[in-house]
Amino acid sequence: MTVKEKITQQLNRKNKSWYWLSKHSGIPLGTLYPIKSGARTQVTFSTMEKIADALDVSLDEFRANKNA
Fold this sequence. Notes:
Layout: H1 3-13, H2 18-25, H3 29-37, H4 45-55
């Protein structure tokens, strides 16, 4: 699974949107949009940390080899 797919999966589980994620993580939509569109596949640790915190999940949920 890609980072985008893993984030989308977590958002769907919580019935939340990318806009919600932006507001609750403090990450601008301009930073999240390339991830959402699939144009950006590498995400910084600090960004993933904010995403995981906003979604109230462990960073392990987004590891590359998890759910492979």
